[in-house]
Design a protein that fits this description.
It is built from 13 helices and 12 strands. The protein is an alpha/beta fold and 316 residues long. α9 links the parallel β10 and β11. α2 runs parallel beside α4. The longest helix has 15 residues. The termini are close together.
Length: 316
């Protein structure tokens, strides 16, 4: 089968949408399909179009549906689709109307869809597989990582702000990996390092280095204000690394409502208490670690592969 996979993120981009599209392209090829990856649909002949991002790929969806009224079409939803665009964007809504199937990346996303969209929606958790990298926790510090580009939607400095509130006896250090997508964010990160000895911004790093920092860390903080289903959570879980996350739909849909490591959105005080508890309370640390390990099968490559295979076969 020939599949055209559309993502609005350009070649060479390190944005999450591009990373997801490249991984899906490899997965589809592994299932035996021919895959063309592009930013827009230009009339290519295909058996199936998979469009990542309902609003930003709406033009491609429209062109494909006009050219192939009965062609098979999957629209995959991002966090900005679900929690920002969908309530106010007719283009995003029309993409979902025209889709034969809708893919969401975590279970809570289904609650944001109207019944007519929910009936054709499928949850496909993104998988992760740690590379063969040797990494041990640092002994002199209790390292916490934040992984993600510096964007307002990620609330990227929440962990740094929480670290300022820790007592002098704490050994916690925040290591933040990700590019500053605005000059104002770069300035903010540099200023934070100047006033906060517990915070290090390490900038954009290759994937193998990101994995190394993650696997040697004591925990990952995901403080986003909205998430479609952060793949870095899957990476932490399969690596056995506890997650501390903001209680937003995307994080809850990945980790489950009963996961013990949540703090209220933008609640710096609660995050600081959780970090200190993580450092000082071994029973709490083991509880989080156990909670993460129980979820490892959810994010296995075999499970994601099977979910996509069944979906594609059901349509085509």
């Amino acid at each position: 089968m020939r599949i055209v996979l559309i993502t609005p993120a350009p070649p060479g981009s390190r944005a999450g949408n591009r990373v997801t599209a490249l991984r899906w392209a490899r997965l589809f090829r592994g299932l035996g399909h021919r895959v063309d990856l592009d930013q827009d649909y230009h009339g290519q002949t295909c058996d199936l179009l998979v469009a990542l991002h309902a609003r930003r790929s709406a033009g491609s969806v429209e062109r494909y549906r006009h050219r192939h009224p009965t062609g098979r079409l999957i629209v995959a939803m991002t966090g900005t689709d679900l929690y920002r665009d969908l309530p106010r964007s007719r283009r995003a809504a029309r993409s979902l109307d025209q889709a034969d199937a809708i893919v969401v990346l975590q279970s809570e996303a289904l609650k944001s869809l109207q019944p007519n969209w929910r009936r054709k929606a499928r949850v496909v958790y993104q998988s992760a597989q740690p590379p063969d990298i040797s990494a041990s926790p640092l002994k002199r510090v209790f390292e916490i990582v934040v992984i993600g580009h510096l964007r307002p939607v990620k609330d990227p400095f929440r962990a740094a702000m929480a670290a300022r509130r820790l007592p002098p006896s704490s050994r916690i250090r925040i290591s933040h990996l990700g590019a500053a997508l605005r000059s104002s964010m770069k300035t903010r990160a540099e200023r934070e390092m100047a006033i906060n000895p517990r915070y290090r911004w390490l900038g954009d790093r290759p994937r193998w280095q990101v994995w190394r920092y993650l696997l040697r860390s004591r925990a990952l903080v995901v403080s986003s204000t909205m998430e479609g289903g952060a793949n870095v959570i899957a990476e932490a879980v399969v690596g056995g690394i506890p997650v501390i996350g903001s209680r937003v739909s995307g994080n809850v849909g990945m980790l489950g409502a009963d996961y013990p490591g949540y703090f209220a959105l933008r609640d710096t005080s609660r995050l600081a208490r959780l970090l200190l508890q993580l450092e000082t309370d071994r029973a709490f640390y083991r509880r989080l670690q156990t909670g993460a390990r129980k979820l490892q099968e959810r994010f296995s490559p075999a499970r994601e592969r099977t979910a996509w295979q069944r979906l594609i076969e059901s349509l085509c």
